[in-house]
Write a structure and sequence with these properties.
- The protein is an all-alpha fold and 164 residues long.
- The protein has one domain.
- Helices cover 63% and strands 0% of the residues.
- Helix 1 runs antiparallel to helix 2, helix 1 packs across helix 3 and helix 1 packs parallel to helix 6.
- The relative contact order is 0.16.
Length: 164
């Protein structure tokens, strides 16, 4: 099955829900229930494993948001939840890489900030979704460009602390 416009929109919406809902939760709840995902652990290099910006609240809101949105898009809630969880795992991986590169939490790293959180879930679900390598590349590029644009809008609205 080739990537269709409708499938692309559905997948991009799910990725947006997974990665946007933790930002909205932070904006609405501030520091309430913002327990660090890494529990404050440090890696062998002495720097935080992930950093304080990756929270259990973020994983829960991102996973629940995709689980809730998926049925509205004709996708099972379990697939939505797993896709969201995989996207957030990709996001945590990018934070791990950024900490190793001495980039502070919420610091900017073009590509590192966007690619893992789109590529990991899409790659994991590629067979179930019928995605070929070109479709994966197109979706990751669309997510990256769209995420950068949306981040600026959210910054101007006061939802984000800084634009990406």
């Amino acid at each position: 099955m080739a990537l269709t416009f409708v499938l692309a929109i559905k997948l991009l919406l799910l990725l947006l829900a997974a990665n946007g809902s933790p930002v909205l939760a932070k904006w609405l709840l501030r520091d309430k229930w913002a327990y660090p995902l890494d529990g404050g652990l440090r890696f062998a290099d002495g720097r935080p494993l992930l950093g304080h910006s990756k929270t259990i609240r973020g994983v829960l809101t991102g996973t629940l948001a995709t689980a809730a949105l998926a049925p509205l898009l004709g996708i099972s809630w379990t697939t939505g939840a797993l896709l969201g969880l995989a996207s957030l795992a990709g996001d945590a991986f990018s934070s791990f890489i950024k900490r190793r590169c001495k980039i502070p939490p919420s610091g900017r790293a073009l590509g590192v900030d966007q690619i893992p959180e789109a590529l990991l879930p899409l790659w994991l679900f590629r067979n179930a979704l019928g995605l070929d390598p070109v479709s994966l590349l197109v979706l990751v590029c669309l997510f990256t460009v769209g995420g950068l644009a949306l981040s600026r809008v959210m910054f101007r609205l006061g939802v984000r602390d800084r634009p990406y």
